[in-house]
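Lab notebook page, bench 4
Experiment: in silico fold of construct C2
Operator: M.H.
Input chain length: 213 residues
Purpose: comparison with the prior construct
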Amino acid sequence: MYRRFIKRWLDFLLSFIGIVALSPVLIVLAFLVRLKLGSPVLFKQERPGRDEKIFTLCKFRTMTDKKDAEGNLLPDSERLTKFGKLLRATSLDELPELFNILKGDMSIIGPRPLLVSYLPYYTEEEKLRHKVRPGLTGLAQVSGRNFIDWDKRMEKDVEYVKNLSFAMDIKVLWMTVMTVLGHSDEVAEDTNAVEGNFAQIRQKRLEETGRLK
């Protein structure tokens, strides 16, 4: 009952309340992002959702559009400003995802939506992460996401899906609050964990062993 009906209604209700209550914060942040980082204010990117249905994820931008002499964008590390780092460290850049949740593309709790280019590289077990709506925060994010390898991270996502319940969501939500208040980067912007790009790692594994796992 919770998984099929109650969770979605809670997501809708809480995201609506969050948008209304945080509207002044959203407006101020939008103004600051426009002032410090430029336009557009929102970073938009296609991500796979439940059943691998593609949706457009929205968050506040955290990097500038600085380019080199040849017109190419500079590396991410050079475009990420102190203000952008602050947005990521406090997870304020994620607030526009409340609209994704309200719409039904995402949930408050669930596996984080990763890149579309990663889809061919999941094992059959790992594909279970797409049996639920992706989340604003998830079990992997509060389990040291930026400090564990991709295999462990996927295991946490699958663990969440298999054990999805109201109690599990409350646990993840509480751990998220504690993590953010502790100014940890475990729930910060995706940084491809400690190993590097997931697709490149899995492609290399395929070339070396002929299998994903």
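Observations: Residues 49 and 105 are 7 Å apart (CA to CA). The mean pLDDT is 87.
Next step: discuss at group meeting.
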